[in-house]
């Protein structure tokens, strides 16, 4: 079922702006080629992030709803507007998925804030000890080390890629970078309802994480809620600055930037492990590949609920362009 509402009147749209904390509006035209091109991207984002009475995605036909289009000064299609508490706070014009991603990253944080206010249990416990929701409502599985911040919103969400995922039992890769508290459920009615990912044919996963800006990474945080069928990761390998995801054979033949064994005692009561990185090797990072090599207790499947990057984000580069950094990082 689509998570996008098609607006049929000014009254309907005004009502949604009042009832939903965040509203994302896609102003389009049926004759617009770029609108048709970007429509599946918009639908996919909505399927992952829409939440009742908190985050609402709508489509507005500018020919059928001329009064609404005029009110918001829509002069080009498609145009995407982000509303918070009924007020426009961002506008993206054109059918470029990378431009839309900047809106998505803002939405993720707004979604976390909305979740904390909704009483749904996704982020209302507050920040304490090993994790919770911070002042802005963004759920954290563990506190950030002193002097560093959560820079997960610098992930180019639309270009992330996950290999060996069980599409029938798990959600889309983008749920890993969401701002809401994981449900911790062991099963979902459908893959689109799952807010975690699981491996498919064996326990290995390969996650490609491109960044919007050159970053210094200090800590990797992984949240995993084990089930009878899927365990937490045990051995992981990290590869920095790859321009694309690695294949499993390629990863085996490539020297990892860092290899880590996660012990059972590393997981806190939020189900999160904070993994310190060799900081000198993660100084000029434009992308990260996370290779889950094995699962705990020799399990045949592995599960990931959230991934967080902790460090410092630098000046944003042009979206979508990755430049591989050489051996200047040192040992």
Explain how this protein is built:
- With 331 residues, this protein is of the alpha+beta class.
- The chain folds into two domains: 4-116, Glutaredoxin; 138-329, PITH domain (Jelly Rolls, Sandwich).
- Helices cover 18% and strands 31% of the residues.
- It contains five helices and 17 strands.
- The strands form four sheets. Strands 8, 9, 11, 12, 13, 14, 15 and 17 form an eight-stranded antiparallel β-sheet that branches. It has a five-stranded mixed β-sheet with strand order 1-3-2-4-5.
- Helix 2 (33-49) packs parallel to helix 4.
- 46% of the residues are buried.
Q: What is the ordering of alpha helices and beta strands?
A: EHEHEHEEHEEEEEEEHEEEEE
Radius of gyration: 20 Å
Count of DSSP E strands? Answer: 17
N→C terminal distance? 50 Å
Overall mean pLDDT score?
Answer: 82
So what's the overall shape?
elongated
CATH topology of the largest domain: Jelly Rolls
Domain PITH: 140-329
Pfam family, one: PITH
Domain Thioredoxin: 1-109
Organism: Sporothrix stenoceras
Question: How would you summarize the topology of this molecule?
Answer:
Blueprint (H helix, E strand, L loop, with lengths): L3 E3 L3 H10 L2 E7 L4 H17 L5 E7 L4 H6 L7 E6 L2 E7 L3 H22 L13 E2 L5 E2 L8 E2 L10 E3 L33 E2 L6 E19 L9 E8 L7 H5 L5 E4 L10 E5 L8 E11 L7 E2 L1 E11 L15
Parallel strand pairs: 1-3, 2-3
Antiparallel strand pairs: 2-4, 4-5, 6-7, 8-17, 9-11, 10-16, 11-14, 11-15, 11-17, 12-13, 12-15
């Amino acid at each position: 079922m689509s998570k996008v509402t098609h607006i049929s009147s000014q009254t309907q749209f005004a009502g949604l702006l009042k009832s939903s904390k965040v509203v994302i509006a896609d102003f389009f035209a049926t004759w617009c080629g770029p609108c048709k091109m970007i429509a599946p991207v918009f639908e996919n984002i909505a399927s992952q992030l829409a939440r009742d009475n908190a985050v609402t995605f709508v489509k507005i036909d500018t020919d059928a709803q001329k009064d609404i289009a005029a009110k918001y000064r829509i002069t080009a299609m498609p145009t995407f507007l982000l509303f918070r508490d009924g007020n426009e706070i961002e506008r993206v014009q054109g059918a470029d998925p990378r431009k839309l991603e900047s809106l998505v990253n803002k939405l993720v944080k707004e979604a976390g804030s909305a979740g904390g206010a909704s009483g749904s249990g996704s982020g209302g416990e507050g920040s304490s000890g090993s994790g919770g929701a911070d002042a802005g409502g963004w759920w954290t599985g563990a506190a950030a080390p002193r002097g560093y911040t959560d820079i997960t919103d610098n992930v180019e969400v639309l270009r992330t890629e996950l290999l060996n995922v069980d599409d029938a039992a798990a959600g889309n890769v983008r749920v890993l970078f969401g701002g809401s508290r994981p449900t911790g459920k062991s099963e979902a009615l459908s893959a689109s309802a799952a807010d975690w990912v699981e491996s498919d044919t064996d326990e290995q996963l390969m996650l490609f994480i491109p960044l919007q800006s050159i970053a210094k990474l200090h800590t990797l945080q992984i949240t995993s809620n084990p089930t009878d069928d899927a365990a937490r990761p045990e051995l992981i390998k990290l590869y920095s600055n790859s321009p694309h995801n690695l294949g499993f054979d390629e990863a085996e033949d490539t020297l990892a930037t860092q290899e880590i064994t996660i012990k059972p005692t590393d997981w806190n009561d939020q189900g999160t492990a904070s993994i310190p990185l060799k900081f000198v090797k993660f100084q000029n990072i434009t992308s990260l590949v996370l290779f889950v090599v094995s699962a705990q207790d020799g399990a045949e499947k592995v599960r990931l609920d959230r991934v967080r990057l902790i460090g410092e984000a630098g000046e944003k580069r042009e979206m979508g362009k990755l430049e591989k950094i050489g051996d200047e990082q040192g040992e």
